[in-house]
């Protein structure tokens, strides 16, 4: 028993370290960049600069200590790059393994833009003793030149740098974790009240943060809008103090002011190299949005972005995804710049052209679809820049429901991310039968291309009947309510689950497979691996569940676990999940899929579940949707599978998520040059220290000022 307890302790603690052998890959975009014209290169350069400055906002959105840790590391590495710092580490008494752990931690902080994993929201701490970390800092050239300054930085972040108190182990609201979207005294009730207030003022929460204090026994809230401008008085301002349900709300601007100013400045520069009117108007609206804190302006910019079909240089920027807001309404900043991959984009274009034939195949009545299908722009891109907390393999944007319903959206597949993110070593492939592993490695990439398909539909509430009950619908979206504001905490994961189900369902269609060049036996292999990948992902998803708070930390993985539960529930031997003992004598698991039943039992299960998801979403049935989704999301030891014990096995055998090294661009004379870096922790670190060479001190001072100003808000 003592040995088993020790093993579990090591296993759980390993969640909070990044391993020294973590995969680090460079995103190759050299050829795509080389083929751009000089004008396109300048356009891409200034968009990239805007994205990188905006990406620093994520430090302030992640944790109280993230900005200070970032500044400390930047100051150390600016004086001594990793190769030079190695001798210093040796002199300070670090082993080579400890120095590598230091580099991996630094690379992880840069890659995640904070000290919490972007995928899973778990804290990570340095995998070397605190005294060794401090010894290295004290031996560094940065400390020798400015000892007082470096000591202040260390003292202000070192405790939280290493702290693994229960609340600090993960992001969350109130006593469930750490968040800087809300002050530390906010709870779910405050988030709900603030959402009601924002809805009453027709204000979006996407670019806001909420701070609460008591004023003479009354609840007083400050809603901060991200903007370069701090002062009030502009015509489009919605700022001011308002009374609402026995509370006071003050809406003000100026959050992340300097960073928003630098974003806007570079977007203005990019405008000079725009290729057409749509790009020019798009950038004008983005600048207005980031200058004044206007989500309406960002929506307007997004409308022009949608109209900008098939540009050579594609981009999007702003407060986009709400996964990391514990309430699910506030967007994390991200910005990407990418170059079109013409060959793969042609396949996606063919898929979109077939959509009007394929959509009737989906398992709900036509009344649940739009009268007119708005064909999205579906493009494969090679990423030049992706600033934020992490890099996805694909995106479906914008997230504004009113725009998606009436004007459309774009599907973006990030080809050079897929090329490295889905490269898998056989010996690291867990929980699959040996006969499935080679198939899995061969077809995982192609199956993702087929799977990446999202539906988005509308309905007429006066005519639509619930396909399950036959009754007229009794709920719908009212006033300024949106999908995110209505379904809040489950919205992101629920929508990811719906999208994944659409992909699973449509990949069974021969026409879809044919578009991607898969026919006959090969097509069946792609279908099999696509479904196998999903059930395995559902099992792996258990890593991102926290039993103590009974909460999920990652929307996509929760969605995949839900789908695993649905397919296990289908029975008839479709999916088999068993606990085993590995060759190393430690707990293991085996998941298998009966390929002969995918088109029958599997299709039927997904069809029914997808229809239920769609009905609850379309009719704003929050109560029914929550009951359905949270029921399948439950992780228990009851029933035919002990998912809590399986979670321990998943943690024991988990592989760390890869990190990406990205290139920099710089203007030399009239040309733009691409600076690339090696695929290592040192390369990732170097890319960041060379990213802000012109104004590093100014930007870092702003980050520290903001972190210091709000330091009392998190207690």
UniProtKB/TrEMBL annotation:
Its GO CC terms are: cytoplasm
One GO biological process this protein is involved in is: proteolysis
Q: Name one GO molecular function term.
A: aminopeptidase activity
Cofactor binding note of this UniProt entry: Binds 1 zinc ion per subunit.
Q: Which domain of life is it from?
A: Eukaryota
A Pfam family found in this protein is: Peptidase_M49
Similarity remark: Belongs to the peptidase M49 family.
Q: Show the Gene3D superfamilies listed in the entry.
A: 3.30.540.30
Q: Which reaction does it catalyse?
A: Release of an N-terminal dipeptide from a peptide comprising four or more residues, with broad specificity. Also acts on dipeptidyl 2-naphthylamides
Q: What is this protein called?
A: Dipeptidyl peptidase 3
Q: Which residues form the signal peptide?
A: none
Lineage at the top is: Eukaryota, Metazoa, Chordata, Craniata, Vertebrata
Q: Which residues bind Zn(2+)?
A: 496
EC top class, in one word?
A: hydrolase
Q: Which cofactor does it need?
A: Zn(2+)
